[in-house]
Sequence to fold (179 residues):
Amino acid sequence: MSKLIVLDRDGVINEDRDDYIKTPDEWVAVPGALEAIARLTKAGYEIAVATNQSGVGRGLYTLDTMHAIHNKMLDQVTAAGGRIAAIFFCPHTPEAHCDCRKPKPGMFLEIARRFGRNSLEGVPLVGDTRRDLEAGIAVGCVPWLVLTGKGQDTFRKGDLPEGTKVRPSLLAVVRELAA
Fold:
């Protein structure tokens, strides 16, 4: 079975914004993130992105715009020598109480199904918020908190899930995983 890793998008791969990433022009990669994804690809990882995108449910941007944002990300990842195998997203607001919105594990269960796995036990999950970590832990992922995006605030609040590894960035995580 191939190696798999799950990455959050906003704050891990791209810079986060309090007012949401609403256009492709607003999508800007975190320094080192594209290189990190290229290194993961070269090390034989399949990369899945799991991202809450409540801006769709809030009417801030359309599904077509979100796909255009993802296409920009995929183009830049490819240009850097990387490959993202799949992007999973939740378009709902918290008020929808859906099963796919992190911290619920629905997206992760779908990732396991799509990658033909019975479990995500031991699969690295890289996120910048507690809800990212909780969603992955619920299905057995190994949690990595990065200090980009909302990661520094998450770290300062403390009370991280047991076993969480903390690194400054996705590139720092990858230097350990794909050394």
